[in-house]
């Protein structure tokens, strides 16, 4: 279905095989012994990230909706949102990020992907495929931190003083009402941020000292199992390929098979609404595609799911010779709808809390494509880890706080056997490098490789044919900004009749943002509430309530 077909005087185009009548009753049909509600109401999902894709899947699997009643509108050329991965061996591959997974947590994610068939292994789900892959490749980092001497830092000890332990315990046990909108630095002394624990925890989860103390506390509880094995990353699980190829592509394939309409290059720029019985009712979506502007009429029984905010909004790519452009939200447009929604009332949140300070939410990643195995061979000799086993290698004395990770190869479905790809990122792109006399934000790919080789003491010649594509992301950790509870809306805001929000910027008590799980859980909560689905959402596993887990964390804290 094209944009021009979607924008019509009818509630929805006639080629959806549904009557144009405004009668909202539903016809029940049976497909392969499964009851499906071929609803005359429609669902529109604005934004094609993992949250919207998951929401569509939950509507079909658990809500009994026909896929043809669901349309996903995405402004970018590809679906997948932040879980991207693209390129070729000739032009270079590029990933904005790589999300860690665990099988001890991520309850809603695996609940979803147990239902999505693998594209490569007939009879297996994506979950089955991922578990089998990680049984063969168990994370066991032997070079988690590297210092300025190119020495592997001993990390069995977390490096805490007694003051550090007391302060960390105080933060971890404080209520969120007490923590409020305070940064981590209000609770931990300066020396804490020089401990081995901080360097490992911060680079695993992308925390900065000025980020939210509430979010930091949530991570300490949600990932308490990882506290005792943070130095080896033993709990971290990886997908077979990058997360676009391993998660998004199978999910998209399944949704297409169900008849879901996927419209790319369609930017929803504005929304129409009215008030009915004290509730906000969305009535129209203003769309721009191929220079054409139109309005999709939203009927009162239709549902709208909007991605409010975007952590990868205004991302820009560089090249071996050009640094990424320094875009902000005016160039991206990913915050526009949330800012318009926020005008309806406080129940829709406060986007300015998260998008008003790029200096506090920006970092930069880079993806390197190699046609020479020498770098991977040298990394094996240095670290002792095969690709796919070691996880992050962090250069703790790097001015940029640079880390790299060598994934199991191939990392892309279309990657030739004689090509290797690795990814890295730095938390302080505004600082001058140790080996390159300029800020990372001003560096092209060649200069980033020079800085990397300086930390590793590798001969730059081994990367002579490498293609490094840097990526600047001004809002990548904006969800970690210190906030009040009311700054994030609920997945279904109060007084909202037909609107739900799905993103890293909704409020889910006890769960942690900057994870695939958060987006999938938000989608499941939103769908189940709006569709009144009588099925239990997988609860957050309370590992932090386990006496065994608590004891192991205590032992680690005193190591």
In brief:
The chain has 559 residues and is an alpha/beta fold. The chain contains 18 helices and 19 strands.
What percentage of residues falls in helices of 4 or more residues? 25-40%
Please outline the major beta sheet: 7 strands, mixed
Structural class: alpha/beta
Overall mean pLDDT score? 92
**Rg measurement, Å:** 24 Å
Number of helices: 18
Counted beta strands: 19
Beta-strand proportion: 15-25%
Give me the side-by-side strand order of the main sheet. Answer: 7-15-16-17-14-18-13
Give the low-pLDDT segments: 2-38
- Indicate the overall shape: globular
Distance between the termini: 59 Å
Walk me through the structure.
The protein is of the alpha/beta class and 559 residues long. The chain has 18 helices and 19 strands. It has helices at 3-6, 50-61, 107-113, 126-136, 162-173, 176-179, 196-205, 213-222, 224-227, 243-257, 329-332, 336-342, 352-355, 358-361, 374-383, 445-456, 516-531, 547-557; strands spanning 27-31, 34-38, 43-46, 70-73, 86-88, 92-94, 145-146, 261-263, 267-276, 279-289, 292-297, 303-306, 316-317, 363-370, 392-395, 402-405, 420-426, 467-473, 499-501. The chain has a 7-stranded mixed beta sheet, sandwiched between helices. Strand 15 (392-395) and strand 16 form a beta hairpin. The chain is globular and about 65 Å long. Residues 2-38 have low confidence and may be disordered.
Any descriptors?
alpha/beta; 19 strands; five-stranded parallel β-sheet; 559 residues; disordered N terminus; seven-stranded mixed β-sheet; 18 helices; globular
């Amino acid at each position: 279905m094209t944009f021009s077909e979607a924008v019509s005087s009818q509630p929805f185009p006639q080629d959806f095989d549904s009557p144009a009548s405004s009668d909202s009753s539903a016809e029940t049909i049976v497909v392969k012994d499964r009851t499906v509600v071929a609803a005359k109401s429609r669902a529109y999902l604005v934004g094609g990230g993992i949250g919207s894709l998951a929401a569509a899947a939950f509507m079909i699997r658990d809500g009994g909706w026909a896929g043809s009643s669901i349309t996903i509108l995405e402004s970018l050329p590809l679906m997948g949102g932040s879980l991207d991965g693209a390129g070729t061996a000739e032009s270079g591959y590029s990933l904005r990020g790589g999300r860690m997974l665990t099988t001890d947590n991520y309850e809603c994610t695996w609940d979803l992907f147990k239902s999505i068939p693998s594209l490569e292994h007939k009879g297996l789900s994506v979950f089955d495929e991922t578990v089998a892959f990680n049984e063969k490749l168990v994370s066991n980092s032997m070079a988690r931190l590297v210092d300025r001497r190119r020495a592997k830092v001993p990390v069995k000890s977390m490096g805490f003083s007694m003051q550090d332990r007391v302060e960390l315990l105080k933060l971890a046990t404080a209520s969120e009402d007490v923590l409020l909108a305070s940064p981590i630095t209000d609770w931990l002394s300066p020396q804490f941020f020089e401990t081995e624990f901080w360097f490992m925890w911060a680079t695993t989860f992308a925390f900065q000292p000025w980020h939210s103390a509430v979010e930091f506390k949530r991570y300490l509880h949600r990932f308490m199992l990882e506290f005792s094995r943070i130095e080896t990353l033993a709990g971290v699980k990886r997908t077979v390929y990058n997360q676009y190829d391993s998660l998004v592509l199978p999910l998209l394939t399944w949704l297409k098979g169900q008849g879901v309409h996927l419209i790319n290059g369609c930017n929803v720029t504005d929304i129409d609404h009215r008030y009915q019985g004290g509730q906000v009712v969305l009535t129209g979506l203003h769309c721009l595609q191929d220079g054409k502007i139109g309005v999709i009429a939203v009927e009162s029984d239709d549902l709208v799911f909007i991605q409010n905010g975007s952590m990868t909004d205004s991302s820009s790519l560089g090249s071996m010779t050009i640094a990424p452009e320094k875009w902000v939200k005016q160039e991206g447009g990913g915050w526009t709808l949330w800012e318009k929604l926020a005008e309806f009332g406080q129940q829709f949140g406060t986007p300015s809390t998260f998008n008003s300070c790029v200096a506090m939410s920006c970092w930069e990643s880079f993806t390197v494509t190699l046609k020479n195995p020498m770098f991977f061979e040298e990394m094996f000799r240095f670290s002792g880890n095969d690709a796919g086993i070691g996880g992050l290698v962090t250069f703790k004395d790097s001015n940029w706080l640079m880390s790299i990770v060598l994934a199991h190869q191939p990392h892309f479905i279309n990657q030739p056997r004689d090509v290797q790809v690795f990814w890295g990122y730095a938390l302080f792109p505004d600082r001058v490098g140790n080996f390159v006399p300029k800020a990372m934000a001003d560096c092209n790919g060649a200069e980033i490789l020079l800085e990397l080789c300086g930390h590793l003491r590798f001969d730059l010649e081994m990367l002579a044919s490498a293609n490094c594509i840097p990526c600047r992301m001004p809002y990548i950790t904006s969800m970690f900004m210190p906030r009040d509870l009311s700054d994030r809306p609920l997945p279904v805001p109060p007084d909202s009749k037909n609107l739900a929000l799905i993103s890293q910027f909704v409020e889910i008590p006890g769960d942690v943002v900057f994870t695939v799980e958060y987006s999938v859980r938000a989608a499941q909560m939103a769908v189940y509430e709006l569709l009144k689905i009588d099925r239990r959402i997988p609860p957050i596993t309370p590992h932090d309530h386990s006496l065994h887990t608590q004891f192991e964390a205590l032992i680690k804290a005193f190591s």
